[in-house]
């Protein structure tokens, strides 16, 4: 078998386990040194590929790979950058394939979400159009869980675990503080168009009255009256109310709740959805209110990784290498669920071109009839994804994340001028 | 030795380890059944004592105590309530001592911060004035680390560990996202008057260029120009900048930064310090900005407890029982540091009356000369407090916190009408 060089890169918002996929790609490719020569990584995704900013991962020892597998964030750097359509910017693709050719790269593995899968599809089509012998494989990753064709997306399970634990712990705090005056706590989680992380906070509750009492998802238009009625009833019953809100919830007219406090000139975005919801409750019902916005913390929590998520992140990385070696162009390894309990899953391959432009949202049968919580079907789906704990090593009281030293490959080409 | 009944209660904002103190109090008191009869807990602190809302902890089995020791929040309920001065509301104290007398309570242990120590001092003085044979002991607890007379406050070490880990992990995230455009991340932590938690995020960094690059504490008047200059220089050097800000930072004129966006009528508080700082950077320097507000999550993170903090929370609980049995009225067990490295500490006792009205802030020699970071002396002080990990048991992917069932004691008195 002729040896070819492989390029791996990370794209989009990073996760707690994207480096686990990276480590798995490198380990699997090393095992197949009959088929794969140099294993490159690009800095900052496709930008590094265009800029010929490449790393030779051969410098990473076994200890480095082990450390990499348990480090959150994107060790090689990520980006938010979409290639232009090939018919609009041929020069961009000329450059990309010049870089590939200069380094003998015939395999390109791109680790990301929906936008990154679109990049995979574009690069694959451009290679075929040019007759460049490239195999492009997508490696799924997103905390948003919105990639079609896979039962879940690596990265989501750990974010979901983080959010559920956050709600559980904050719920105990607010319950202990609730006495004479009603108290409300709002947790804002990521999710612009899909409420998966918000839905997962339902896993914090073991009883019907446990937090979260309300879950607001972008899939359901925000109904202020119905929402406030449930908040009020919950505070009357329990003395407090805990609410999870996705950052992207919208009203029936399609406007974002997080935009509601723009000033009259539209210049100032005053706060996110969590703050708006907390202030709304305070203004209408008078309760004391707190809100938390974990922001990056929820997708970078290497200290609270789901073991299932970690295993799946590794599995898609390994499977992507196998697909590349087998010459399966423009595919993405995906998770197929075989059973909920016991949870069993396997890797299958999806055609990237068929899923790249789609977005997987929380389905109707996962949302309670009143739109303010999830169903048991949602719990059955979500529960296995947060199962198991993978603890990092600690040093000095904090996780001992060790960023490997990355050695850049000498450039062969002139500097890129976009 | 005559047996007397003991009353334990929790007060003020709760922590990840206040229940560890509670479990230690109960365990230590049980061991001394020669001296202590019934071990009561009041619901919601002094409010439950006034309301005669008492729990007999005898119903808690060994498993319950074990679970209690690892559950965040206040299992018996907390409160924010200050007793009136005795000369202003004798009826309040009449009621309190009527409840104590009705249940044979001669020992009162109050677990809280500065406000709670003031309650201890008031109740102690009132008991002496009335000739009631009560021994009052304070049990220190606060994430704010602002209790005088103790090297650190139980609860702080775990909040500090949470904040340091949050900054470490979010820092890896933002570093991987920083490429073409500068990015800024702001972490807002608790601390209205004292910057201890903010200072502790310095422990996230192993190298000079690692996050956090700036730490804003309430002890230092906020200097917008100096701050923005360092943000700008950091983004130019690294491509990103991570900032920790205490919620209570103020300008030189004493106004809170978090109030800067009040509208002209003063009605709307638009955001906290973190949001204000992030928006300031965006407005002046144009960088992409994110901010995180862990809020309750930082003081309720039972999944990320400092082993040192947990041990100290248990130690002050046990020592408080010893003090009560020894008849040491109006004292508080405190931590005295014997050495930094190896970290060694012991329990000493402080006169509550002498420390109740004080507030311990970050000292000048812990703050870097430019006011925008901490010194090595601060790191030496802080490091031991976040050391070691205590993991809770997990079930279903989240910590298996089990709130013990609490049985209320039949009331002996008529209902309390304040």
What would your notes on this structure say?
Chains A, B: Residues 8-323 form the Phosphofructokinase domain. Chains A, B: Homodimer. Chains A, B: Pathway: Carbohydrate degradation; glycolysis; D-glyceraldehyde 3-phosphate and glycerone phosphate from D-glucose: step 3/4. Chain A contains 12 helices and 15 strands. Chain A has helices spanning 18-31, 46-50, 62-68, 90-102, 114-130, 156-177, 196-200, 224-238, 273-285, 307-325, 352-355, 376-382, and strands at residues 4-10, 36-42, 54-56, 105-112, 135-140, 183-189, 214-216, 240-246, 288-292, 305-306, 331-339, 344-351, 389-390, 394-395, 398-399. In chain A, strands 3-2-1-4-5 form a 5-stranded mixed beta sheet, sandwiched between helices. A 4-stranded parallel beta sheet of chain A has the order 7-8-6-9, sandwiched between helices. Chain A has a two-stranded antiparallel ribbon with strand order 10-13. Chain A folds into 2 domains: 4-142 and 304-356 and 388-399, Rossmann fold (3-Layer(aba) Sandwich); 156-298, Rossmann fold (3-Layer(aba) Sandwich), CATH 3.40.50.460. Helix content of chain A is 34%, strand content 19%. Chain A is elongated. In chain A, helix 1 packs across helix 10. Chain A has 418 residues and is α/β, with parallel strands linked by helices. The model of chain A is unreliable at 260-268 (pLDDT under 50).
């Amino acid at each position: 078998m002729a040896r070819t060089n492989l390029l791996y890169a990370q794209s989009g918002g990073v996760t707690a386990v994207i480096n686990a996929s990276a480590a798995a790609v490198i380990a699997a490719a090393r095992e197949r040194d009959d088929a794969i020569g140099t294993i490159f990584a690009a800095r900052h995704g496709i930008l590094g590929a265009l800029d010929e900013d490449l790393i030779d991962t051969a410098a990473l020892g076994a200890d480095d790979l082990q450390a990499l597998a348990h480090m959150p964030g994107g060790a090689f750097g990520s980006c938010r950058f979409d290639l232009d359509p090939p018919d609009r910017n041929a020069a961009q693709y000329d450059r990309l394939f010049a870089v590939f050719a200069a380094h003998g790269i015939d395999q390109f593995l791109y680790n990301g979400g929906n936008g990154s899968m679109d990049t995979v599809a574009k690069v694959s089509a451009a290679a075929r159009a040019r007759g460049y012998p490239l195999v492009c494989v997508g490696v799924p990753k997103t905390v948003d869980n919105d990639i079609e064709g896979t039962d879940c997306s690596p990265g989501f399970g750990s974010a979901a675990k983080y959010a559920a634990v956050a709600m559980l712990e904050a719920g105990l705090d607010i319950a202990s503080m609730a006495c004479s005056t009603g108290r409300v706590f709002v947790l804002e989680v990521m999710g612009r168009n899909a409420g998966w992380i918000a839905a997962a906070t339902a896993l914090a509750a073991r009883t019907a009255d446990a937090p979260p009492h309300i879950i607001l998802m972008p899939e359901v238009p925000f109904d202020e009256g119905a929402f406030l009625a449930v908040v009020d009833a919950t505070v009357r019953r329990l003395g407090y109310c805990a609410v999870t809100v996705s950052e992207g919830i919208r009203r029936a007219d399609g406007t974002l709740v997080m935009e509601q406090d723009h000033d009259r000139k539209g210049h100032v975005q005053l706060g996110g959805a969590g703050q708006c919801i907390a202030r709304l409750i305070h203004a209408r019902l008078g309760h004391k209110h707190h809100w938390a916005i974990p922001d990056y913390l929820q997708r970078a929590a290497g200290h609270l990784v789901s073991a299932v998520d970690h295993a799946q992140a590794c599995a898609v990385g390994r499977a992507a290498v196998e697909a590349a070696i087998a010459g399966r162009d423009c595919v993405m390894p995906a998770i197929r669920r075989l059973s909920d309990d016991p949870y069993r899953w396997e890797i299958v391959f999806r055609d990237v071109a068929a899923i790249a432009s789609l977005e997987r949202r929380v389905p109707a049968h996962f949302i309670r009839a009143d739109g303010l919580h999830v169903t048991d079907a949602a719990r059955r789906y979500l529960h296995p994804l947060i199962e198991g704990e993978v603890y990092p090593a600690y040093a000095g009281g904090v996780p001992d994340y060790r960023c490997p030293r990355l050695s850049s490959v000498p450039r062969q080409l002139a500097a890129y001028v976009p």
